[in-house]
Predict the 3D structure of the following.
Amino acid sequence: MTYEIIINNKKIGSQYNPYFIAEAGLNHNGDIKIAKQMIDNAIESGADAIKFQTYKSEEFLTESSEYFDFFKNVELSYDEFKELNDYAKEKNFTFFSAPFDIPSADFLNQIDVPCFKIASSDLTNMPLIRHIAKMNKPMIISTGISTMNEVEEAVNWCLSEKNDQIALLHCVANYPALPEETNLDAIKSMMKKFNFPIGFSDNGESELVDIAAVSLGACIVEKHYTLDKKFDGPDHSFSIEPKDLKNLTSQLSLIKKIKGTGLKQPTDFELLNKPAIRKSITAKVDILKGEKLTENNMSIKRPEGGIEPKSWDSLLSKCTNKLIKKDSVIKWDDLI
């Protein structure tokens, strides 16, 4: 097992900055021009990758489904997906997709996408997961609507095909998912359970949730993304627009620095500030040579440089070996 995966030469894991996936999903509304603009804006906004959904409606939906017409109306052709893949490659940007059926997975493999996304809806789709795992490419698996046992089953199907290039995304499959139902501590539970990169697939509008997820250890964030929240379609209203996406990716990239090493020790800047900030035991009045130190002739003031205040009790009744002027720091060399 591995603690990191590599997509297009970019390492993804807890020791790196979070990997941000702009989830285009179906927010292109079936228009390849919009899809291309989404790629351009995702690049400008600092995303690491853009992710679409690839399918043939007849392959994953019954024609009697209430959702069939919607998916069919926004379905891009394989030729259009190849055009998008080529477009992203020209711009040296990572394009990949979530196939909803085996023919679509085969097509994506043929155009050489660098990785695959398994949607939450396919977490229990053993034939699809095993089929993709055989392609020996990184697999990012969303875990919405699942139990830990179901996640473990999906992982084991990948491992049975000798594919351990796995990342798991905690996810709540509600659209939109409200902040109070995101259960982000599940990220920590998954980190304890699996030796794979763990991330968060966000189906909500709140950016605070993504910041919290990365703070808890998520090394991937996937967030629904649109050119305009006012577009018609089920996902646009809670998706992030390019200007806000740029701000979010910038904030997320700071979190690793904000979290630091975890060691409780002074920073370099603190050490520079320490002499001016810390205090010393000082002379409250002129203290004559041979005089005893007492609470009446000692005080605690800035700056540092003398005996630290924590040694106050041990100084009481000690005698000086020299005159110590008022407001001068008291040093061990000044005492008998």
Q: What stands out?
A: The mean pLDDT is 96. The longest strand covers residues 19-25.
